Amino acid sequence: MSENSENLPKTITRRRFILGVIAGGAAVGAASYRFLAPHGRTISAAGERLITINVNGKPRRVDVMKQETLAWTLRYKLGLTGTKLGCDRAECGACTVMIDDVPHYSCSVLTHTVRGRNVTTIEGLASADGKLHPVQQAVIDEQGFQCAFCMSGFIMSTVGFLKTNPNPTRKELAHGISGNLCRCQDYNKILDAMMRGAEYMRDGVPAGRTLTATGANPAAGDDASMVLARRA
Ligand code: FES
Ligand code: FES
């Protein structure tokens, strides 16, 4: 532990301290963000504007720069870190969210353009009572990922695709989510999970398998800590 953190007042926990450092870093990063314009000119990030965007069914007031991407706003200003940043240039799909029920790369959407539209992130998929979305449940049942960095993007793309084709073949689904990449190359398992998700959406999640967003299975009398301990 560093000398500075040892001297913190007892009321500040290590977790709070680390979160504070992250928040401070993000604020400084946003304030000094510069964007490369054509011919190598840079554009200042100054001039934030307060706007309201609708995220996961709730209006959120947030100061945004005119060049700010939705991924940046979601992660570093609204704390919705389930949306991942991989390439930050529309290649990997890790940042996928739904805008008006259509999957988009949030790293390539300017935040001010989504005013008046409905943004759904991975945090907004569970139902109001905390029950996981069927595609999320299918990922747990099939254990379809390795490091899972790409997982939220795949889930959002799949949920969006299934809105247009609820009963896809494996090949159709593979094509539908081909804009998402997995660095661990776990595509077969991912497709198993997503096909299971399609099945759960059509036929319902089997009784007794429904987890809440905290990982507990109320049907089995679990609490979250028991579930996590079992997975460890
Ligand atoms: S981070 Fe957006 S597509 Fe890779
Ligand atoms: S499971 Fe690791 S990047 Fe996809």
Give a description of the structure.
With 232 residues, this protein is of the alpha+beta class. The chain has three domains: 1-32, no CATH class; 46-124, Ubiquitin-like (UB roll); 134-231, [2Fe-2S]-binding domain (DNA polymerase, domain 1, Orthogonal Bundle). It is built from eight helices and seven strands. The protein has helices at 3-6, 14-31, 70-77, 134-142, 151-164, 170-176, 187-203, 224-231; strands spanning 34-36, 42-44, 49-55, 58-64, 96-99, 102-105, 118-120. The strands form two sheets. It has a five-stranded mixed β-sheet with strand order 4-3-7-5-6, with helices on both faces. Strands 1-2 form a two-stranded antiparallel ribbon. A hairpin with a 2-residue loop joins strand 5 (96-99) and strand 6. Residues 1-10, 21-43 and 217-232 have low confidence and may be disordered. The site of one FE2/S2 (inorganic) cluster has 10 residues, from loops.
Set out the fold topology.
Elements: H1 3-6, H2 14-31, E1 34-36, E2 42-44, E3 49-55, E4 58-64, H3 70-77, E5 96-99, E6 102-105, E7 118-120, H4 134-142, H5 151-164, H6 170-176, H7 187-203, H8 224-231
Parallel strand pairs: 3-7
Antiparallel strand pairs: 1-2, 3-4, 5-6, 5-7
The structure holds FE2/S2 (inorganic) cluster (2 copies).
**Rg of Cα set:** 20 Å
Count up the helices.
8
User: What are the segments in which pLDDT stays under 50 over at least 5 consecutive residues?
Assistant: 1-10, 21-43, 217-232
The first-level CATH class name of the largest domain: Mainly Alpha
